[in-house]
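The material for today's practical consists of a large collection of protein records. An example says more than a description, so a record of this kind follows:
***
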Amino acid sequence: MIFSLLTFALWGITDVFYKKGNSEKDDKYSDLKTGIIVGIVMGIYALIYMIVKKVEINLMDILKYLPVSLCYISSMVIGYKGLKYLELSIMSPVENTSGVITSLLLILFFKEKYPIPVYIGIVLVFIGILLIYRREKKENRTIGKKSFLAIFLPIIYCLLDGLGTFLDALYLDKFEIINEDTALIAYEFTFLIFAIFGMIYLSAKKEKMSLLKEKYKGMAAIFETLGQFFYVFAMASDSTIGATIVGSYCILSLILSRIFLKEKLKTEKYIAIGIAIIGLILLVVYDP
């Protein structure tokens, strides 16, 4: 449970830095640049982690975990692009429904049994997230003027991230195909490879990128990497409840976006946040 809560906190903070780092609408490569910085930070961290923990990993481990890695990386880059067009308070709730959906799929496919309050908690989190999105969509009248692709970017993210989370549950918890350390390093090295190809692409396009000037993207990458460390252990311990708690980090993102990004919150949003928080409390208290 503690791993899920730590991931929840770290990724909630990460979202705010992602928004700050991808708000340059005149930079068409800002999403790719974010992915590159995240990949570099993760690659460095993976190398240090592997040396310190003396974890052995080979090419087959990376290939074995590749389906999960690709789902996560592609969803994240799509999420970065979406932040250029939509408010964080719109993007994050839709994206984060993937965690609840994954939990419901795991319960359905693996016939898991939990105390009744756990099921109520999952439903309350889902309702809270949807209410936030519904209210935000009503308030933001300019959303109708956005491109068709921009509106559906968070939905595409949700599907890819949900699939990745479901696969992660199979790999780490249900079938134990791979251990937590190997999964973490395999994913982060795959992200590093993506970053290398991304830099080659930008170079071919003669697009300049200064790592020292991308402070918000850098901070996002650091918090993302720290969250990823705790995430693999959260999914390995109890993927069903963990997916719901981690997947609801948009609640924290929304509160932080109100404080630091000055995105407005109205009464209905506070009610929605309260509903989701009650659901999270039920999950924490009644975790088996």
